[in-house]
Q: What sequence folds into this?
């Protein structure tokens, strides 16, 4: 049996009793589900406990059965966890989350304060402009209601006319006629008075809305007393919308008030830098970055390297960069960032207060990621490096770090091709893969084809790195062909045949005239299966590519200097490919219009 790679009980006991976001992963590292919790310890444990209500859902039951491991991010409030959850769902679109079909995320309220007659708009994101943004909010309908309410309360325009350029060009719209707009489009209100209304709207969105609520409550009672129940209900709904979305909401300003929090956790071999994006005290997102580090590098050195690399490559710089330790050349970096941003940027190291708390939070998350990644690396090493060691032990050889596998593909012996795939320390090394178009073989002769491929592979000076083991797609016959070729070249490399059972599943390795069986379900068996499948896939793909392009009418097309005219002349002179293959240079030069250099290319192509 394959050893369990993630101890659920152990990891559940490590969960903190704090708010945050949790992410469920499959064995293939796919993100299955993202959720938020007021108490991570209690919430995540529920998924693995029988008798809890949400576990009765077939979707959740199916999701839980696929969980290989989970990770979590601690936040300082449930609201921050909510925003992070939304961001993660939008970014990763997990299979078992209920996804927004329009993929718009949480909405914002945008006030175009840069305009002479500003508007209050619905926005799906924050842009780098001079507008003011409020949010993010969790209820898009409530946001639209609040925008409608603000426009009604303060008689603001909601048209797209360009003012003051278009003042007086058209009649006022219907909103002016029903008393909901002061018609700046016809100069019915000065820009100064209109700006005062905008300031009241901003004050309202900043949370100073008690007077407005009192006024609405009075109107609702008056409507009810006057038996105007429909208007009373509309007013009640607006009051509920205000209460729903205005609770604990703060303003985000895209043109300045931004802060990044940077912390680092490291060990002897690795480091993780976590960066929190804070906008006016609201945590809107985070990133984790791995840094190559060793036990000789200090946290200060790691953060210095990160700050230089990260902000030199990002188009946006915050007003403040909060770091956990002194960084080198701070004055120079601040000057550089100020020039890049166009306004002052401060790098600070807080000792207490809210910024220090956020810094500690960022460090906690970096430490969690580092620990989880190290555990994931160990699991990955077991599937890769560990599997390669197991293969070496099974074969009784020193190492099996580099494996090369070969496969042949053709249709009734025509258009024969071969593939070579490479696994290094259990991982595919795709830049070392090679395709071979067979030159000397006519008909479906896999043994002769493999002899040609191996001869070309081990006489090519460009492929001077040899494998620890050669894996042949087949049994005794293919292995003996490979050994014969290697012996003729004076090369000593272990050769195995990848043996399949009657159901075409990899069963074991044929080595030293014996079949070596794998422990069922072992990582070694899984890796050999993957290697064999990859060699077959790569050969079939190449063969399909050649057929689909219809690019090979003759093997002569691959020879430098041979185009359609010379190919036609060669076939007319020699009648078939086999006579061209056996011709010497002088015979090739006798073909009408055949240059000496091209004749040499043809000869070397078949005999090189």
A:
């Amino acid at each position: 049996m394959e050893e369990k790679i993630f101890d659920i009980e152990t990891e559940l006991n490590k969960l903190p009793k704090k708010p945050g976001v949790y992410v469920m992963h499959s064995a293939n590292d796919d993100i299955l589900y993202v959720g938020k919790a007021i108490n991570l310890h209690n919430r995540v444990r529920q998924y693995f406990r029988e008798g809890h209500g949400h576990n009765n859902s077939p979707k959740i039951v199916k999701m839980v059965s696929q969980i290989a491991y989970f990770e979590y991010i601690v936040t300082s409030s449930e609201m921050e966890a909510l925003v992070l959850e939304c961001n993660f769902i939008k970014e990763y679109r997990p299979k078992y989350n209920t996804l927004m079909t329009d993929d718009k995320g949480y909405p914002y309220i945008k006030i175009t304060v840069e305009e002479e007659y500003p508007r209050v708009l619905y926005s799906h994101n924050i842009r780098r402009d001079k507008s003011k943004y409020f949010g993010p909010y969790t209820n898009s309908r409530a946001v639209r209601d609040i925008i409608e309410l603000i426009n009604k309360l303060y008689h603001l325009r909601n048209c797209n006319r360009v003012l003051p350029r278009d003042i007086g060009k058209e009649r006022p719209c219907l909103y002016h006629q029903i008393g909901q707009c002061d018609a700046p489009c016809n100069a019915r209100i000065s820009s100064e008075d209109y700006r005062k209304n905008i300031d009241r709207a901003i004050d309202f969105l900043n949370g100073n809305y008690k007077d407005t609520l009192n006024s609405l409550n009075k109107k609702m009672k008056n409507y009810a007393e006057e038996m105007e129940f429909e208007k009373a209900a509309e007013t009640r709904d607006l009051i509920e919308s205000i209460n729903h979305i205005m609770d604990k909401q703060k303003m985000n300003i895209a043109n300045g008030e931004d802060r990044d929090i940077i912390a680092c956790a490291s060990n002897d071999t690795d480091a993780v830098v976590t960066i929190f994006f804070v906008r006016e005290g609201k945590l809107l997102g985070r990133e984790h970055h791995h840094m190559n580090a060793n036990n000789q590098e200090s946290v200060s050195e790691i953060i210095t390297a990160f700050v230089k690399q990260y902000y030199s490559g990002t188009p946006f710089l915050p007003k403040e960069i909060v770091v956990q330790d002194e960084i080198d050349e701070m004055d120079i970096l601040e000057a550089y960032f100020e020039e890049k941003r166009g306004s002052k940027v401060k790098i600070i190291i807080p000792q207490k207060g809210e910024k220090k708390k956020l810094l500690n939070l960022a460090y906690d998350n970096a430490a969690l990621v580092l620990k989880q990644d190290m555990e994931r690396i160990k699991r990955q090493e077991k599937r890769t490096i560990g599997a390669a060691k197991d293969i070496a032990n099974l074969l009784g050889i020193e190492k099996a770090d580099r494996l090369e596998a070969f496969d042949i593909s053709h249709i009734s012996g025509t258009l024969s091709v071969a593939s070579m795939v490479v696994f290094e320390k259990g991982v595919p090394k795709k830049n070392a893969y090679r395709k071979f178009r067979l030159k000397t073989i006519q008909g479906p002769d896999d043994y002769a084809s493999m002899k040609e491929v191996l001869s070309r592979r081990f006489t090519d000076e460009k492929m001077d790195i040899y494998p620890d083991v050669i894996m042949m797609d087949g049994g005794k016959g293919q292995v003996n062909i490979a050994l014969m070729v290697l012996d003729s070249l004076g090369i000593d490399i272990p050769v195995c045949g990848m043996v399949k059972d009657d159901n075409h599943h990899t069963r074991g390795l044929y080595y030293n005239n014996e079949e070596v069986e794998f422990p069922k379900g072992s990582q070694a068996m899984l890796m050999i299966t993957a290697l064999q499948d990859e060699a077959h896939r790569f050969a079939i793909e190449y063969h399909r590519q050649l057929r689909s392009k219809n690019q090979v009418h003759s093997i002569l097309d691959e020879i430098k200097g041979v185009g359609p005219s010379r190919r036609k002349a060669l076939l007319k002179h020699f009648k078939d490919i086999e006579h061209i293959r056996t011709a010497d240079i002088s015979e090739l030069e006798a073909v009408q219009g055949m240059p000496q250099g091209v004749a040499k290319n043809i000869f070397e192509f078949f005999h090189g």
